[in-house]
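Hi V.,

Quick status before I head out on leave. The structure for the redesign project is tokenized and pasted below; the design run finished overnight.
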């Protein structure tokens, strides 16, 4: 975590993004989260997005990401959803039987900025722990 630089900007922004699988189906299990992480690395290189942490919890995904000011949160969500959906359907053809209509992700998303001085470590730990059983209480986002 530090200052990021482009040709015309210096920035230090971090976002917590959450969205569910279509119909809230529990499909983010087994090798699908690993495939999503691989796809996210490719997206990051192509669009200059740093996916700092990715956590899945069966039917939804949490992203902790940093990206340049030229991109908006909705741009990042659109890029991530469209590319991961297409790639997941190619890699796992059986998903089409689970999700009629050809959409993997549900409409909509949650987006919040994350302060490095305030709640960064808490959100980072929360995103990393998705899908794991823990005795800690869940972070309240609303």
């Amino acid at each position: 975590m530090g200052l990021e630089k482009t040709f015309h900007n210096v920035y230090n922004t971090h976002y917590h993004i959450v969205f569910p699988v279509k119909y809230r189906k529990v499909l983010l299990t087994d090798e699908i989260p690993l495939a999503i992480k691989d796809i996210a690395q490719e997206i990051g290189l192509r669009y200059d997005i740093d996916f700092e942490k990715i956590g899945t919890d069966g039917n939804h995904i949490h992203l902790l990401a940093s990206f340049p000011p030229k991109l908006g949160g909705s741009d990042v969500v659109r890029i991530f959803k469209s590319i991961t959906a297409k790639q997941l359907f190619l890699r796992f053809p059986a998903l089409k039987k689970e999700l009629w209509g050809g959409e993997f992700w549900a409409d909509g998303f949650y987006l919040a900025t994350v302060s490095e001085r305030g709640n960064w470590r808490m959100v980072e730990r929360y995103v990393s722990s998705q899908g794991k059983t823990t005795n800690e209480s869940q972070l309240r986002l609303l």
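Above is the designed sequence. The domain at 4-128 is CATH 3.30.70.1290 (Alpha-Beta Plaits).

G. will cover questions while I'm gone.

Best,
W.
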